[in-house]
Predict the structure.
Amino acid sequence: MSRNTADVGRALELLREGLGPFVEREVARFATREQIADFIRNGPRSNAHLKEERIREWDVHVLLNLMQRRWRDVFADTLGRTERGFVGELQDWRNKWAHQQMLTSPDADVDRALDTTVRLLRAVKAETQAAEVARLRESRRAANAPDGNALASSSGTEPRSSVPAHRPVPRSSPVSQADEIRLYAIENYVMRWRESGNETLAIRAGDVEREMGLRHVTPNVCSALEGRKFQAQANLVLVRREGPRRSTTTTYYYQQG
């Protein structure tokens, strides 16, 4: 088993430990027995055994699925749009891990998955588990840093610059330019937008191209930003486009998926 697989697996186990009591408590407060029975009855066949277990003992993918399906009537009063985005993103990471799918940029992707795990655990006040995942993340970042020092954590208290410096992926990396554009937009636009609480996210193609230090690749930037893959990865829906079809002034507007 690779370290990436082991680290994501450990983070998911800690997520289950921290999320289980919260989900169980919120279900007891807001959900009816029939709603939970319906979730078990209409879910995958593997859900059949759930009626014999306490909710806090359910697998993490079942907990996340329940949160998504019963968000409006159970969890929306306690958590916001940002946290719902975290739930959707962690469902994707869990599925990739469970199906042993190769990630396009393993270290960056695992770092992102751990960061989102920390954020959701803190949102549900599971501080013990959040702290352990944060330590795991910082250990990885320290090991991967060229000088052996940990990088500043975006889930901690360190301030981030308004336009973070972009570090291009080495040419030997298998990451495509489109993957790099999508990852940059998620880390530097989507995550900050979720923290802001605004309803709509706007991304201008020319800004992304300039910040990444790219030249004469505007059509590629636009293609990455308007594609279904980016929307799926970021859990967004493209609601409109302003400006020319593919220009530095083209601006894309998204809302939570």
User: Anything to note?
Assistant: The longest helix spans residues 3-30. Residues 148-174 have pLDDT under 50 and may be disordered. The chain has two domains: 1-155, 160-257. The chain is about 60% helix and 5% strand.
